[in-house]
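Morning F.,

Quick status update on the modeling queue. The single chain you submitted on Monday has been processed. Sequence for confirmation:
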Amino acid sequence: MSDTRRRVKVYTLNEDRQWDDRGTGHVSSTYVERLKGMSLLVRAESDGSLLLESKINPNTAYQKQQDTLIVWSEAENYDLALSFQEKAGCDEIWEKICQVQGKDPSVEVTQDLIDESEEERFEEMPETSHLIDLPTCELNKLEEIADLVTSVLSSPIRREKLALALENEGYIKKLLQLFQVCENLENTEGLHHLYEIIRGILFLNKATLFEVMFSDECIMDVVGCLEYDPALAQPKRHREFLTKTAKFKEVIPITDSELRQKIHQTYRVQYIQDIILPTPSVFEENFLSTLTSFIFFNKVEIVSMLQEDEKFLSEVFAQLTDEATDDDKRRELVNFFKEFCAFSQTLQPQNRDAFFKTLAKLGILPALEIIMGMDDLQVRSAATDIFSYLVEFSPSMVREFVMQEAQQSDDDILLINVVIEQMICDTDPELGGAVQLMGLLRTLIDPENMLATANKTEKSEFLNFFYNHCMHVLTAPLLANTSEDKCEKDAVVGSNKSNTVCPDNYQTAQLLALILELLTFCVEHHTYHIKNYIMNKDLLRRVLVLMNSKHTFLALCALRFMRRIIGLKDEFYNRYITKGNLFEPVINALLDNGTRYNLLNSAVIELFEFIRVEDIKSLTAHIVENFYKALESIEYVQTFKGLKTKYEQEKDRQNQKLNSVPSILRSNRFRRDARALEEDEEMWFNEDEEEEGEAVVPPIEKSKQEDDFPDSYEKFMETKKAKESEDKENLPKRTSAGGFKFTFSHSASAANGANSTNSKSVAAQTSPASSNGSSSKNTNLTTTVTAAKQGSLVGLVDYPDDEEEEEEEETSPRKRPRLGS
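Structure tokens below.
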């Protein structure tokens, strides 16, 4: 037996009917000699003292509530409750109690809820008085009737007897006739008594009485009685609201009179429960359980009757999608459907399945597609609610419809694109609708709820579809707000940040934050689809432009996006980040934030701390080599010093490796995986470099070669022979500015980790970093960034002492110049 299973809190009910916590301990059921019977013992977990010792009495009514509560009464005014930490423990003790009382553990209550004293009283009463005698239904007896009704509520047996008496004598109708008399005479005292009587009868919780009270001839008088609450100075005008203000709209005439009557009745009873009756306290909750059930079953009946009437539903759909339907009519039709779907939530799972399948067969999705694109805000909002019911019910059904539709339609009118456009164009300043739609989109693109069958995989099919047809619509606002012309000033690293890239518009910032949240979700769940998209669109560079936003929440969203990417520890992404110098906007934001201790500061530091703790070598080397001078002044955390230490340790390790083997074998630094070439074949790589006395290149991008080298050994040997004929002029030469000048060939999509035949020559000029840490801009290096157009921005930044470039020249066999001997 585990401790937590039997861990309980002991509660007692005080005079104010509030539960007092008596302490936490562990419960057990054992035979106690003193009490002569099986008892419940609770010992305190703090000191082992006895919190509770209670004999399981064969006649005590024990109640199990909410799977983890057992409640009972020890004496007339002494109620106890055990609240279990775990359901399993509650079940065990419940079985013990049921065993003692000879009951089946499946029951929720072990005895009828009656006071013992009361039980004895009833046993003594002669058989003839099994019903309560009701006073005659007259004006001067109303006070006596009210007292009787309120007095029985505390006793389940007397409640039953009163209900039977009311039913047998047709008493309720007589009371309602008295109500009309009182109202005509303006007899306020009598009306107040009638309020107490009718409210008490509702609390008897009997379905047979409800049938009478909520019938067409009685319900308005019942509502009338409930207007005269003695606590109110003036009676409420509920009947006036129900008859004059609340209008029953028939979008399509309902011919079935029984159905019409059910709809009216349900609306009015719901009104009584929600508006007229006060919110029940914890102890009154069960008093109205039958009323809740009454409404529930009415709704089930209404949905079933409407669903069976296919002619009615077909007519609704026809009018909904008909262009000739006027706006008011369409608004009412959509609202009808919204309420219809809300009612359907009361159905049992199998009936709900049938309901949504009926709607799908009738064409709910194409109809939604039309109405979601309409100008009327109310119609769009209701359509969104209906769409959310459908997505919640079956995301697969919606996905299947969209993919079939894609084969016949343009991208613009696809249902998902209509949804995305509604999200983008939400006019609400707080973007309430957009947030709801974003949640629905996330459900649709979540691989967790996608099905995989033997002959097809929904995940790959749908994600291929989504990235081909919809992703460009989703990212359009993001790309538009971070476009190249807006970024030009920011592309030069050392420039003054005079333009705030993100529009000041709070609504636009909110929208971009939502889009980023969805993209972050994609990074976590979609692996290669989103990876290809980010690489091809250079999306991370565009997102990081938002680090300049004056809206901190948006800058944090951009940072979170990058953090998720780095969190994957994927070398493809790492190479993309280092090649594009994408840490720069993050470091700029950290330095611009200055000494302020806020969420942005903590989030940026956490990003670098993650890289340090996880020891991501390629990123560590890139950060230390390019940004350490700017960051070394930050000493309130040890993160950056720790990164430097890791970097130096790795460098020492590499040097030791190289020094521990003969120079002829040192080529191991290029390939350390299972496909490493033979040592004597690889020695060609660095024999010339050794003779020139060049510094050893740290193996920052150890997996770069895995991707760029031709897979087959033969291709490699051919390439090697071709390169041997080249001369050694391509070594870096020191420029007069004191930096290095590199001339090398570079693939336009190298930042994306892809091979490309369309290569360009890029010249980058760098100057040494300023050691002045006062300004983020002074600490950065001025570079010229050449960006490839057509959406693929390639940023190349070269730094002094950056030996990585040399390795980069060597890594692409097709373009690598031969180093001199």
